[in-house]
Each structure stands twice: as structure tokens, then as C-alpha cells.
Amino acid sequence: MNANATTSFSPLESDLPRFKRLVWEMCTNFVLAAFFFRFAWIQGEAFFTWYRLSTFLLLVKVSSDVFFYLIRKPPEKVSMSLYDWTVAIMGTYAVILFMPAGASHDTLFGQIVQCVGLGLQIFAMASLNRSIGVVAANRGIKTGGMYRWVRHPLYLSYVVAFGGYLINQFSYWNAAVYCGAVLLWMLRIMAEERLLTQDESYREYATRVRWKMIPGLV
Fold it and tell me: Which string of b and e fits 69-98 if b means at least 16 CB within 10 Å?
């Protein structure tokens, strides 16, 4: 991909003063924490009402997401595209729209899928080592861990983990949230690729690691 061809679509702001960048990061963290508190309250109340493992695993999954977002590494370059920010915010916060489906029972298969997704996330987060963020940004090119096999393993973990939750807590509402979230994650991948391919080292990495999420398929 030609970097010059995408610059106008996904502009960068790499010269923002450090103080303003820190203020922006703090504001983003505050909003994230506020939304998460509401989500945790609803899901926690549901867990202590029905004691469903799927609810507990969802809380662990989203709590670990929030933790890693809050300790994330400051970016070297970040997209200032309104489109990228819209997709990123919607894709990040969509999962808090999942709602408990009531007192029905979990399935073993759904619980296993959730656990696999959670394991993939932990591995992917460890591979990133704080290089995580809300909007498309360059926090340093990562090529180790899971990134030796696919370029966006974290989104794969999202698809698996929340898919397991949907199996256990199925409702038409949760199905719509899941489908919308998956679409937004795909759009986030495209936005991140547009930005990162402006870095020569990432272009070299992308030629070595062809697959974005699943080796041999996607």
C-alpha cells in the first residue's frame, strides 16, 4: 500500500505537545472508566443473581481490557481522522451493550469458547506489552509472540471470547451487538493498517506475516 495515497484519509498528529497528549490520554481514560463502571455494575449484579460462569468470564475479559487500556504506552503517531476515531470509539464501547440473558443455563461449549478467547487475549496482550490503544496509532511495531503468526491477534481473541458469551447468553439484542461489534473490529483493523503501513518497518513486517487474524484464512 502506498503510504502517500492514504495520508489525507488518515492524517497523523505526531507533533502534539506532550502535555496536551497526556491530557487527552487522561480524558480518554476517564470516559473509559465511567462506561466500564456502569457495565461492571450491571454484569456484577447479574452474576450474584444467577451465578453464571459466562457472566463472570465476561467481567474478567472486559476488566482486563480496561486495565491494559489504562496502562497503555503513549503513541508515537496517532490518527486524527474523524472516521478513525468514530470507528475506534464505537468498536471499543460496543461490548458494554451486552446484557445478561436471564436465568437460563450456560453450555459447556460456550464456556470453553470464552476461556479460549480469554487465553488468546492474555497471550496477545503480553505480546503487545502496553502497545494498545483506542484509536489507530503507532506505539511501536510488535513482531513477537502471537504477532509472529498474525498481525491482529487481539481482535481474534475478541471474536472468540464474545462469541462464547453469545452462545451462553443468547438473545436477539446480544446477537445484534455481537454482529455490530465484529463489523466495527474489521473496520478498526482497516484503519490501523492504513496508518501502520505508513511505517516502512510495518510494511516489511506485513510482507512476512500475510494473515491478519487466522493463519491461512483471513
Answer: beebeebebbbebeebbebbbebbbbbbeb
Provide DSSP, 48-70: HHH--HHHHHHHHHHHHHHHHHH
Residue pLDDT tens, the chain, 218 long: 333 333 334 455 544 566 666 677 778 778 877 888 888 999 999 999 989 999 999 999 888 888 888 777 777 777 878 899 899 889 988 999 999 988 778 999 999 999 999 999 999 988 887 778 778 888 888 899 999 999 999 999 999 999 999 999 999 999 999 999 999 999 999 999 999 999 999 999 999 999 999 988 87
Q: Which amino acid is at 212?
A: K
Cβ-count burial of 169 within 10 angstroms (0-12 exposed, 13-18 middle, 19+ buried)?
Answer: buried
What is this structure's pTM?
A: 0.85
User: Residue 70's closest CA among 158, 13, 134, 19?
Assistant: 134
Give the type of residue at 57. L
Rounded Cα gap, residues 95 and 83, in angstroms = 19
